[in-house]
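Subject: Protein entry, chain in single-letter code together with its fold tokens

Area: Proteins and the way their chains fold up in space.

Attached in line: The record itself begins immediately under this heading.
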Amino acid sequence: MHSITTPTPLPTSASARAVVTAHATRWGLGTFTGAIPLNPLGIRLSRSLIASIMRVLGRTPPGTTVHEVDENGISGEWVVGPGVRRGRRAIYYIHGSAYTICSARTHRSLAARLSLATDLPVFVADYRLAPEHRFPAAADDVADGFDWLLRQGYEPGDIVVAGDSAGGHLACDLTLRRAIAETGQPAAVILFSPLIDLTFELARAQERIRRDPAITASAAARLVALYTRDVAADNARLALDFSPAQHLPPFLIQTGGAEMLSADARYLHEELGAHGGDSRLEIWPGMMHVFQALPRLGPEADAALRRVGEFLADLAANRHDSATATRTVHTVSGAS
């Protein structure tokens, strides 16, 4: 019998702190992001700015351990929250920020809190960034990282794939390519504010309804173009086809109600469902892009990660119950 716990509720309105933060961001960072030039100096400035924001507004739990990995072309960090033990299950985390800006280090706080919320170690991949490395460098590195985990002894079904923003697109590419190749799928996919439509048409339509506090669709599209430049927009690894969704693992998608990529989250959820996939969508009122990474801005960040932990615990319990039922059926059949 599984213990009964009270599930973390999905809020029906934004906290006061989140509302104030969104307004401050709109008239602060939001007026600045589109003005940064996309030359080498501007890219360095953007990387430094985002790293500072993630460091100041993040929170790494005391007792977190970090082990850097750099071997055979695989780079990243194992991040293990306090009290969490390495075992046969793990999270494979794919960071976002337009294929251009972030790293395992910038996402260390988020990975640590995700590890604590799920009781699982987290491996954060450091894939090659644009503009130094264009498509398909990031997607290939992400696939290589998953294969590396398999060589470490993990089974595909013992790995949870998670990612944010552009990392959501990379996670979908990974699982879709594995579905096409008929290779093993991860246990689940967890996505925070996923970017799916690289043309940003969905984001632009959402932007006409509500302006994203942090960045405009045009500015974000210019960043992503540093990775996709000179590649046809209908390339199968950019314009993702979710027709194999019935062969994908369950998805949990969380997005902020104040961000333009809420349109991408809704589109992904609808595409998965339309093609026989298993998807759960959570739109958090008033929240900004990848709010889960910024716990100092509001209580929603930690609450969202608790819901991830509950989602994965439910999946594990259901898988255990199904396996037990199967063994019971086989035992009865063999005795008759």
User: Anything to note?
Assistant: The two ends are 28 Å apart (CA to CA). The longest helix spans residues 300-335. Residues 173 and 240 are 7 Å apart (CA to CA).
